[in-house]
From TrEMBL:
Organism of this sequence: Lotharella globosa
Recorded GO MF terms: ATP binding; ATP hydrolysis activity
Region of interest (Disordered), residue spans: 324-352
Protein name as it appears in the record: Clp ATPase C-terminal domain-containing protein
Subcellular localization: Plastid, Chloroplast
InterPro entries assigned to the protein according to its UniProt record, in alphabetical order: AAA+_ATPase, ATPase_AAA_core, Clp_ATPase_C, ClpA/B, ClpA/B_CS2, ClpA/ClpB_AAA_lid, ClpA_ClpB, P-loop_NTPase
Source species taxonomy: Eukaryota, Sar, Rhizaria, Cercozoa, Chlorarachniophyceae
Length: 570
């Protein structure tokens, strides 16, 4: 470019454009320089090694050009293998009998391997190891440990995300497909939209996947779309244009992926993003690449993209049998609004506007229901027929349980068919609402829309066990053994169960009923290090803390966990 700007230099010379070498040309170049690097490192490079260097560098190292990156790759692999062989030879040196057990002087140095030793051969495995060190992408072949880890991925994720079997299965399939090299090399590993009510595990599943497969939750790149609601905020993803403040900092998305190309990208609450954000996502989802404000192309083909959304929550709750609860809460809000505003709703009333919007949304849903697709209508008829058959055999209560717990493994035969049909019905409803919110070209580029269903009380109790285990670890770090009774667990579940708000009320109940009170007892000195503390519920419904007496360990003190004087018992 500078030569073209200078007329004098352009007249004196000729501009020659040198294009990037192809993979076959790179292999021939590597064969030409092979002897030079073999003499330098004291190793040998096989033909398969050169082929792997050209292929891996072209696929996984996108910010450099061939043949430069392939030559550096074999140079690094030769140096790594030579260092490993020299280190092994030093470990094999005999220990001298005298001199206080000193190690005998090695016959060779790191730069001069033994002449009698066999010359090591650099294989494609060493090339893959170097690529993994450079980029963080697992290029090596799958060993037995990783194979077992991939096969048990559903179980590992399900231990942390309760009650969402279908999303866990879809995520595990995408990971296995990518690791075995069966995915499209020009697209991301997978792209999903997690849709469902609040507090059912959408974000938690993304964190669990980053921790289980990507190694750590630090390998998750999270972008809250509530911060990208304005048009000018869109430039923060790829960087500010030249001449604007923040140009040298780069984009928040592009810089994070450029540093960690093998990571999980989480777009939280995607429906809140500005429409210009979706123009950027279209290129990422289809081509697996994005150019930042500095003109650098960032590779997204080794990223897993997850977007969370609350679109379709009302349809999921309605299909899961919780529509009556939603309607009851709306009626209570309207009654409170009438009490506060007896003259009727005003223009400044947020509650009235919210109720009006919800009522309008209800009418739109009814209108949409009356104009359903014939296939969907037929599917509903089949579901109703299965309900009637189950009602004749097991009663109405079993049918309702099958309808709500669509992913339960206890029901077989017709129960499983009904559960799967109901899940597909819910999924089609949610996809219909997504079509009204997002553009078709955006939805068409996604791999799958995954629907999260509401949690039932049994699943909330399992989540309660996970939260209590986390509190137990925190107390164990202070050398205090914490245990809770089943009554106290039932109390937490009854306080924190809400089918509309998911597991978040349970977390608040654990903090309010347990952690806050334990913190006060630790500060006051009622609970000391080395003690065993048990939390229970009394006959009057009071929360009791059972701990040994300081003066007489044989005495047990029952103290109100919230407030109150201790009661000593033998």
């Amino acid at each position: 470019v500078c030569l073209c700007l200078c007329l004098c230099l352009c007249l004196c010379g000729v501009c020659v454009c040198v294009h990037q070498a192809t993979i076959p040309q790179t292999i021939e170049i590597l064969k030409g320089v092979r002897s030079k690097y073999e003499d330098h490192h004291g190793v040998m490079f096989s033909d398969e090694c050169l082929d792997a260097a050209a292929a891996f560098s072209h696929r996984y190292i996108r910010d450099r050009f061939l043949p430069d990156k392939a030559i550096d790759l074999i140079d690094e692999a030769g140096s790594l293998l030579q260092f490993q062989m020299a280190k092994m030879s030093l470990m094999d040196q005999p220990i001298s009998s005298g001199g206080g057990g000193a190690v005998a002087a090695p016959a060779t140095t790191l730069d001069e391997p033994a002449a009698s030793a066999e010359v090591p051969m650099v294989t494609p495995e060493e090339i893959a190891r170097v690529v993994a060190l450079w980029t963080g992408i697992p290029v090596e072949s799958v060993d037995e440990d990783e194979s077992e880890k991939l096969m048990n991925l559903e179980e590992n994720l399900a231990d942390r995300v309760i009650g969402q079997r279908q999303p866990v299965i879809s995520i595990a399939k995408a990971i296995r497909r990518s690791r075995m090299g069966l995915k499209d090399p020009s697209r991301p590993v997978a792209s999903f939209i997690f849709s469902g009510p609040t507090g059912v595990g959408k974000t938690e599943l993304a964190k669990a996947l980053a921790d289980t497969y990507f190694g750590s939750e630090d390998n998750i790149i999270r972008l809250d779309m509530s911060e990208y609601m304005e048009r000018f905020a869109t430039s923060r993803m790829i960087g500010s244009p030249p001449g604007y403040v923040g140009f040298d900092d780069g984009g928040q998305l592009t810089e994070a992926v450029r540093r960690k190309p093998h990571s999980l990208i989480l777009f939280d609450e995607i429906e809140k993003a500005h429409p210009d954000v979706f123009n950027i996502l279209l290129q990422i989802l289809d081509d697996g690449r994005l150019t930042d404000s500095k003109g650098r192309t960032v590779d997204f083909t080794n990223t897993l993209i997850i977007m969370t959304s609350n679109v379709g929550s009302s349809s999921i709750l309605e299909a899961s049998g919780h529509d009556a609860i939603v309607q009851q809460q709306q009626e209570e809000e309207q009654e409170e609004e009438m009490e506060t505003n007896p003259d009727g709703p005003t223009n400044n009333s947020r509650g009235s506007r919210f109720a009006a919007l919800k009522g309008k949304e209800k009418e739109e849903q009814k209108t949409t229901t009356t104009q359903e697709d014939p296939i969907l209508t037929s599917l509903r008829a089949q579901i109703e027929e299965l309900k009637r058959e189950n009602a004749d055999l097991k009663g109405k209560q079993v049918v309702e349980e099958v309808a709500i717990n669509s992913d339960s493994a206890e029901h077989e035969g017709q129960g499983d068919a009904s559960a799967e049909a109901r899940y597909q019905d819910i999924k089609s409803r949610v996809f219909g609402e997504l079509q009204q919110r997002f553009r078709p070209e955006f939805l068409n580029r996604l791999d799958e829309v995954i629907v999260f269903r509401p949690l039932d009380k049994a699943e909330v109790r399992l989540i309660c066990d996970l939260m209590l285990a986390d509190t137990h670890k925190k107390m164990q770090a202070r050398n205090i053994t914490l245990s809770v009774t089943d009554k106290f667990k039932d109390h937490l579940v009854s306080e924190g169960f809400d089918p509309i708000y998911g597991a978040r009320p349970l977390r608040r109940a654990v903090k309010r009923c347990l952690e806050d009170s334990l913190a006060e007892r630790l500060l006051s000195g009622d609970i000391l290090e080395g003690q065993a503390v048990e939390v229970d519920v009394g006959q009057q419904g009071d929360l009791l803390c059972k701990l040994p007496s300081v003066d007489d360990p044989s005495c047990i003190r029952y103290q109100l966990l919230v407030s109150g004087a201790p009661v000593t018992m033998r």
